[in-house]
Specification:
The chain has a domain at 456-640. The protein has 36 helices and 2 strands. It has a two-stranded antiparallel ribbon. Helix 6 (110-129) packs parallel to helix 8 and helix 17 runs antiparallel to helix 18 (347-362). The chain is mainly α and 721 residues long. Strand 1 (285-286) and strand 2 form a beta hairpin. Pfam families: DUF4487. InterPro entries: ARM-like, ARM-type_fold, DUF4487.
């Protein structure tokens, strides 16, 4: 009777019956109260007194009908009072538990689960969209109701576990909602925390009941396939799939291999991350952990736990297809996964990845698109992978790609090999005593990897040829190199870094050729190269470069280098050069270099004299002009430089519009009134005018008539004077 009365009440038109309900408000209130008391007695009787036999089809049909009507009434009274709704659902759960064990496959849960899902959605929308309106107490009350409703939902699923194939779509929708609701409230940390405490925490308990159910994963995969056709929450789906994979790995379930063979979990996560990755903020957490780190770690753990050798070929193909996709965030994710695979698996897999990237990057048109994200990410990944290769594998890659192919690939591999961590034990034989100065130990530790080449005369001769060829190549190909400035800078700095180690082991003739090449390089280099050259000369003195009376030509070349550096106009280079020169003179036995340098140039002699006297070595005015010139530098992107806007057509200056604020206010007010009247007219085409609106309409008409009469009377007076 209560349910039927509500249906009849909703079918009444307010315009026709509104005044009747106003006059009998007290009667209706008493009727509702009495009906509700009768309904509570009915629920208690349904729990304790009434019994439906599970052996008869008529009783089962009648029980389903009674349960549906009960849910319909609960759906109506849920919005009236929280306590009332809680009592209704408790009673429903008791009745359901009473018969679930015997006829759980016959009880229909579509209606109750659908109502519970709608209630959760309404509560989450209320909390997230009205966060400025709701106070803390009201928001907490809504969240507690949501937590209670979610517990009912989980309990019903637990009672009917194994017989919920018809309800899997609703359960999935609930999971997607729970694992995405914190995203709806943006960066509000308090609301996020409360949602996690009361609502989102139930997602794990609900998913625990289905993460080994093949029907559940089949429904999830079907939903993934149709995600573009249906209004699916892809952010929530990404999290649900990820958590399900994590639970399968942690539980060490026997079904994990069967499920991973049937359903492409890895492809699903990467595809969903490709769709929603840009919306994931740095403050987004998944089960208390950073969401991006969770994605990487779960994918990696799932690959190591489930993927066989035959399946890995397809996974690797998928990873590298995404690696060169146009979505940079997906490529970065795959880059991290690839590096983790290389780290936790055997070296042969890492070597294959390095070879694949080398083959791919070898034919890259670097002179056109070195700044493309695909190239940047691929090259950075190649450098990271090189760190996991042994020395033998590095030699294989170097012999195959560093000699006969593009210079940009050699550049990337050199960066990767130099980032490999040195083994501390290699430096121990080079230290005579552990009591030596700490800085000496550190310096020897840095160059310990090159000691074996220094001791081998054949390797030293090869290194000498490489130095000469490197200097000449850098000078000749400075403007034609495929990588331009970045490649030349790196090559020169690497050569200057290893030069002090090999220089003392070369003959005087070879040293003169190397220093001549370095002197020619200074004429073409920039600030970075000149500073590195000064440091190189200083390190050479530390390594005891032999400068006896027979090496006069070597001393002359060194003096020429210092004279060039000391005469530079850049104060930074001058400062580095004079410090290097002072250190060099103090650490060498040949004092004739000082005389050779001073005889090179009068300005250099003056500069060194002022430096020794601890006076200002550059005039303040010159430094001011230099800094002022640098301040006027403006950076222009290379694409903007190619665009030249030519405008020869003279345009007159725009005229200023005259505004009358009072006229604008009146006109905008009339436009707003006219717009509202049109909306009311459209509404009245299908509805009747409410009774209480007629008096208001009459008052509005009187006001408009008064304004209209006044306006037309003034216009008549103006016409006839």
């Amino acid at each position: 009777m209560f349910h039927d009365g509500v249906i009849y009440f909703f079918s009444c038109s307010e315009s026709n019956y509104g005044h009747y309900f106003v006059t009998c408000t007290d009667i209706l209130t008493a009727l509702f109260r009495n009906s509700y008391e009768v309904y509570l007695k009915y629920l208690r009787a349904l729990e304790d007194k009434l019994y439906f036999s599970c052996s008869f089809e008529e009783d089962i049909t009648l029980l389903n009908d009674v349960m549906d009507k009960t849910v319909a009434i609960i759906e109506i009274v849920t919005g009236l009072d929280i306590k009332t709704a809680a009592e209704q659902w408790k009673s429903y759960l008791k009745v359901n538990s009473k018969y679930a064990e015997k006829i759980r496959d016959r009880l229909n849960l579509l209606r109750p689960l659908s109502v519970l899902l709608c209630n959760i959605q309404q509560i989450i929308n209320t909390v997230t969209t009205n966060k400025e309106v709701l106070d803390d107490k009201t928001r907490t009350r809504h969240l507690k109701l949501g937590s209670f409703i979610l517990k009912i939902f989980i309990k019903l699923c637990d009672l009917h576990k194994g017989f919920l194939d018809d309800c899997l779509s609703l359960i999935l929708e609930m999971l997607l909602l729970l694992y995405s609701c914190s995203k709806n409230c943006g960066n509000d940390g308090l609301i996020n925390q409360e949602l996690d405490t009361y609502i989102c925490i139930g997602g794990a308990a609900l998913l625990n009941q289905f993460f080994e159910d093949e029907h559940f994963f089949r429904e999830l995969h079907n939903l993934f396939i149709r995600r573009m056709e249906l209004p699916v929450n892809q952010f929530g789906m990404h999290n649900v799939v990820l958590i399900a994979m994590k639970k399968l790995v942690v539980s060490q379930s026997k079904a994990i291999h069967d499920l991973s063979a049937k359903y492409p979990f890895i492809e699903m996560v990467i595809t969903l991350y490709n769709d929603v990755g840009l919306t994931i903020g740095t403050n987004f957490l998944l089960e208390g952990k950073d969401m991006y780190m969770s994605t990487v770690s779960v994918l990696m753990a799932f690959i190591l736990s489930t993927v066989s050798a035959s399946q890995y070929i397809q996974i690797e193909k998928l990873l590298f297809e995404c690696f060169f996709s146009f979505n940079c965030h997906t490529a970065l994710l795959v880059s991290d996964i690839v590096c983790l695979i290389a780290r936790f698996t055997n070296e042969s897999i890492c070597l294959e990845m390095v070879q694949y990237l080398c083959e791919t990057l070898m034919f890259w048109q670097v002179h056109l698109d070195t700044e493309r994200p695909e190239y940047v990410i691929a090259s950075a990944t190649l450098i990271r992978l090189c760190k996991f290769l042994t020395e033998k594998s590095c030699d294989v890659i170097s012999d195959k790609y560093c000699q006969n192919y593009a210079s940009h690939l050699s550049y990337l591999l050199a960066r990767g090999f130099c980032k490999r961590k040195p083994i501390p034990t290699l430096a121990i034989p080079d230290v005579s005593s552990l009591k030596e100065d700490y800085n000496v130990f550190v310096n020897k530790l840095k160059i310990s990897g090159l000691r074996k080449y220094v001791e081998d005369k054949c390797e030293t001769h090869k290194m000498y040829k490489m130095l000469i060829a490197g200097f000449n190549t850098t000078i000749n190909e400075k403007n034609t190199s495929e990588l331009g400035c970045s490649w030349n800078l790196f090559l020169v700095n690497q050569l200057l870094r290893i030069l002090p180690i090999f220089l003392p082991n070369l003959s005087n003739t070879q040293i003169i050729q190397v220093l001549s090449g370095l002197h020619d390089l200074l004429k073409h280099g920039n600030t970075s190269i000149r500073v590195a050259s000064a440091n190189c000369l200083q390190k050479s003195a530390e390594n005891k470069l032999p400068l006896d009376f027979e090496s006069k030509d070597v001393c002359t070349k060194i003096a020429d280098l210092y004279a060039t550096l000391l005469a530079d106009e850049d104060p930074l280079i001058c400062q580095e050069a004079v410090e290097s020169y002072s250190h060099f003179v103090a650490n060498t036995d040949n004092k004739g270099i000082n005389t050779l340098v001073l005889n090179q140039d009068n300005d250099v002699q003056e500069f060194l004299t002022l430096f020794q006297q601890k006076k200002i070595t550059i005039k303040p005015k010159q430094r001011y002009l230099l800094l002022f010139h640098n301040r006027k530098f403006i950076y222009y992107h290379k694409c903007l430089k190619k665009i030249q806007l030519v405008d020869d057509i003279p345009y007159p200056p725009p005229k200023k519009l005259k505004h009358n604020t009072e006229d604008d206010f009146v006109q905008s007010s009339f436009c707003s009134i006219l717009k509202e009247i049109k909306l009311v007219k459209d509404y009245l085409k299908s509805h009747e005018l409410p009774v209480n609106s007629k008096g208001l309409l009459k008052a509005i008409g009187n006001e408009i008539d008064e304004i209209r009469n006044k306006a037309f009377n003034e216009e008549t007076y103006e016409e006839f004077g």
